[in-house]
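Late entry, zinc ion complex.
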Amino acid sequence: MVDETTKNFPTNKEIPSLLRNRGIFPTRQRVRVAQEMLCRPQHVTADQLFMAVNAKHPAVARATVYNTLSIFVNAGLVSVLTMPDGGTVYYDSSVHHHAHIFDEESGELMDVDADVFSLAQHVALPDDAEVTGVDLVVRVRRKTTG
Ligand SMILES: [Zn+2]
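Prediction complete; structure with ligand written out below:
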């Protein structure tokens, strides 16, 4: 599992300056979305994030949450993980290169530290191509006995 001590998640107070450092003007609504999304390790759908923000700040519109998420993705503050079947899109507050374990029974996504970039060395790439990312999701379920 990921050693959380090596990852830095901002505190609520640090959010406005973090956004400014990434060229994002820290409006009150963006700060609220960021505080819900960026301050801890998590994988959420846009809708789950909206529900969490809405529970604390009902004035923040769904469209604002969605738009703010894409601003964060473009700024490299959030990574995107699309599940191959069904196409569910998860937003990940961990942007370092890591792999995932997906529990098919609980629907939970867990981070795993893995040198996923080294896996790409075994893939024959076109001569003019370089690897920009590797998405690895290991799907699991409970073993059946007998
Ligand atoms: Zn993750």
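Residues 1-6 have pLDDT under 50 and may be disordered. Will revisit in the morning.
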